[in-house]
Amino acid sequence: MIIRDLRAEDRPQWDGLWRGYLAFYQSELAPEVSDATFARLLDSSEPMFALVAEEDGLLLGIVHCVLHRGTWAIEDFCYLEDLFTAPQARKRGVGRALIEAVYARADELNCSRVYWLTHETNTAGRSLYDQIARNLGFIQYRR
Q1: What integer best gives the mean pLDDT of the chain?
Q2: CATH T-level fold of 2-132
Q3: In this structure, are strands 58-68 and 77-85 parallel, antiparallel, or unpaired?
Q4: In this structure, how many other beta carbons lie within 10 angstroms of the beta carbon of residue 10?
Q5: What is the pLDDT of residues 8-34, one digit of tens each?
Q6: How far apart are CA 62 and CA 53, in angstroms?
């Protein structure tokens, strides 16, 4: 398995993983939103990046990150917005490898923080996250 940057030719496989991610969170997006998201992820002028886990030409997982400024540091923050592993690739270290690659990229970019959100019912994800990050107890509110 290798972790690498998302490429334009990954679109068909990315679409499948993206749909799986949205289904996991019982969400749907208009096709134009997914089109814009994919284009932004490939645009080096956008403050975001995407990595994929690949094995023998098959994408096993995706991760999308947004870089942004904050009020608590001079350096940027790295928000790990989306992480998804194909069901057939779970429990093989794909999620951990993607997160560790995000950590490495954030270090290269001199980010002072990597953070993410997950749903409280995501027990499988949380068991991994509890091993590689700290839950500081914050609760999200949204309008």
Answers
A1: 95
A2: Aminopeptidase (3.40.630)
A3: antiparallel
A4: 20
A5: 999 999 999 999 999 999 999 999 999
A6: 6
The four Cα atoms 48, 126, 18, 138 give a dihedral, to 10 degrees, of -50
Q: What is the largest CA-CA distance in the chain?
A: 43
Q: How many residues does the chain have?
A: 143
Q: Tokens 């997160």 correspond to what residue?
A: 99
Q: How far apart are CA 81 and CA 48, in angstroms?
A: 10
Nearest C-alpha neighbor of 2 from the set 101, 131, 129, 102: 101
Strands 2-5 and 48-55: antiparallel
Residue 16 to residue 21: CA distance in whole angstroms: 9
pLDDT digits (tens, 9 = 90+) for 104-122: 999 999 999 999 999 898 8
**CB 53: neighbour CB atoms within 10 A?**
25
Cα separation, 133 vs 5, whole angstroms: 23
Q: Which of 17, 65, 6, 16 is nearest to 39 (CA)?
A: 6
Helices of type H across 25-122: 31-42, 94-108
Q: How far apart are CA 120 and CA 27, in angstroms?
A: 16
Nearest to 53 by CA among 87, 88, 95, 22: 95
